[in-house]
Amino acid sequence: MARMIFSKRLIQGMFSRSFTHKAVSLKMTPHDYPPITGSEHWKRKLRTLFRARDADKDGFLTKKDFEMCAHRVSSYMELNESMAREVLRKRQYTWEKLSCGTSDPDNLKLSEDEFLHQLHRYTRDAALGLACNDFDSIDIDGDGFISPKEHKAFFYGNGIPTDKSGMSSKCLIQTAMA
């Protein structure tokens, strides 16, 4: 439900701030931007995302990586069984979309270049849907906002270290990626 509300507001270019209840108008909606071209900047960002999602650090994305991330988040947030299943379902949905068109998605291993290729072939609408699902998998309580604890759980689930305050520094991330 939250994904539909979030998606609808994002497409309309409007968000509602809970502390002021005033609408914020975005200058451009996702549909106003040019199609994804695979620029070097885009590729660099997605390569970073790939390395963060590779939970077992074997150089490939697998269904197991997405499941490990969901289990880490569930453990960190101390979720009950039904909420943990929902987080796992959302992560598995993301994996299904990434592995669509393959004969055996459960045993598929996506390399970094294959991951870029899979994301590059998506249209803006499909990429927006995938991003909304990803947002919903981070927004555990479904309120449409990512709380500091949910943010910390996201970093923890992807194996990105944080200090005691929940902040992640460039040095911590570089150490984790090395």
TrEMBL record:
Domain EF-hand: 41-76, 135-161
SUPFAM superfamilies in the cross-refs: EF-hand (SSF47473)
Domain of life (superkingdom): Eukaryota
Molecular function terms from GO: calcium ion binding
Pfam families: EF-hand_5
InterPro entries linked: EF-hand-dom_pair, EF_Hand_1_Ca_BS, EF_hand_dom
PROSITE patterns xrefs: EF_HAND_1, EF_HAND_2
Record keywords, A-Z: Calcium
Protein name from the UniProt record: Sarcoplasmic calcium-binding protein-like
Organism name: Lingula anatina
Gene transcribed to yield this protein: LOC106156081
